């Protein structure tokens, strides 16, 4: 009887720890920098991101990617003082999909191992229209939801 109670207590203690470890490896918070995703997300918003491989992304998902070469973001560096480590963009096309007309690319389809990402606010977005298709190894994950916003401070 005592062994059963100890086992049950061990399981009860291990379950929250396992959940915490899973969340730590799977979820990450990222700050939105700039105005390229307005109106969906605004500068200063914090979003919850689930780490997923690029193959799990779908057209229309909002993805977080490792920043492109800083030379491609020199205007943002001048305005913000630095280049953010992550960019938040909407997936517009996946490997094998037609490349949107506004994106320079060789051939008519997105090449294997790449994706096309665009900001929602096209007038204020540096995205695949500048970079071309982005290597899918830069994908951190997909945005699940907004956590905080400068307009609605957290309690």
From TrEMBL:
Keywords: Hydrolase, Protease. Its EC number is 3.4.21.89. Residues 17-99, 107-144 form the Peptidase S26 domain. It is found in: Cell membrane. The keyword Transmembrane helix does not apply. It catalyses: Cleavage of hydrophobic, N-terminal signal or leader sequences from secreted and periplasmic proteins. It is a single-pass type II membrane protein. Coiled coil: none annotated. Gene3D superfamilies: Umud Fragment, subunit A. Pfam families: Peptidase_S26. The keyword Secreted does not apply. Belongs to the peptidase S26 family. This is signal peptidase I. The lineage of its organism: Bacteria, Bacillati, Actinomycetota, Actinomycetes, Streptosporangiales.
């Amino acid at each position: 009887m005592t062994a059963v109670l100890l086992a049950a207590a061990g399981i009860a203690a291990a379950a929250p720890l396992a959940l915490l470890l899973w969340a730590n490896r799977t979820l990450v918070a990222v700050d939105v920098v700039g105005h390229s995703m307005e109106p969906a997300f605004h500068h200063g918003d914090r979003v919850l991101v689930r780490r997923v491989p690029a193959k799990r992304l779908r057209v229309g998902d909002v993805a977080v990617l490792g920043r492109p070469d800083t030379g491609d973001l020199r205007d943002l560096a001048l305005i913000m003082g630095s280049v953010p480590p992550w960019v938040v963009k909407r997936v517009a096309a996946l490997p094998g999909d037609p490349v949107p007309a506004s994106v320079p690319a060789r051939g008519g389809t997105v090449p294997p191992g790449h994706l096309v990402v665009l900001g929602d606010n096209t007038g204020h977005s540096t995205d695949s229209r500048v970079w071309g298709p982005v290597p899918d190894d830069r994908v951190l994950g997909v945005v699940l939801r907004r956590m905080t916003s400068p307009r609605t401070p957290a309690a």
